[in-house]
Amino acid sequence: MEIFQYEFMQRAFLAGLVVGIICPAVGLFVTLRRMSMISDALSHVCLSGVAAGLLTGVHPVLAASAFAVGGALLIEKLRSTFRTYSELSIAVILSVGVALGAILLGLGNGYNANFMSYLFGSIVAITNNDLKIITLIGLLIMTLILNP
């Protein structure tokens, strides 16, 4: 328990606890809708968003968030348009995300190290504001799940 004497470890533990409770709760609904690959597809779209943000000077997290929302909307549009092959919409968006990310990474010479820090951050780097946001979103999600 000596490790919890540090504030950054306390924040990391609490953030991990909140995310560890929320993700399986949301994952149940995702699996039941037969969209278990959506997280993979949206993560590849976020890769493109981070690369686009670094290339254009927009904050990479905001760019990744915008790309993720756009990717999710495109998946839903494709799912509703091609009902017979609705699972393929996820694979199409995943492929587009990877391809666009590769192109944007190729255009941005020299920001590879900065790019990797956005993709593979560290849970011990969570600030108090990050923890507040994670907790607030977690409470909102649990409220929506428990009170349909």
Overall number of strands = 0
Query: Mean pLDDT across all residues, rounded?
Result: 87
Q: Percentage of helical residues?
A: over 70%
The major beta sheet can be summarized as:
none
Structural class: mainly alpha
Number of helices: 6
In sequence order, what are the helices and strands, one letter per element? HHHHHH
End-to-end distance, in Å?
Answer: 39 Å
Overall 3D geometry?
A: flat
Our estimate of the beta-strand percent is under 5%
Radius of gyration: 18 Å
Q: Segments where pLDDT lies below 50 for 5+ residues?
A: none
Layout of secondary structure:
Layout: H1 7-32, H2 38-56, H3 60-81, H4 88-107, H5 112-119, H6 128-146
Helix pairs in contact: 1-6, 2-3, 2-4, 2-5, 3-4
Structural description of this entry:
The chain is mostly helical and 148 residues long. It has a domain of 72 residues. It is 77% helix and 0% strand. It has six helices and no strands. Helix 2 crosses helix 3 and helix 2 packs antiparallel against helix 5. The protein is flat. It starts with 6 loop residues before the first helix and ends with a helix.
What is the compact description of this entry?
The protein has helices at residues 7-32, 38-56, 60-81, 88-107, 112-119, 128-146.
List keywords for this structure.
single chain; 148 residues; mainly alpha
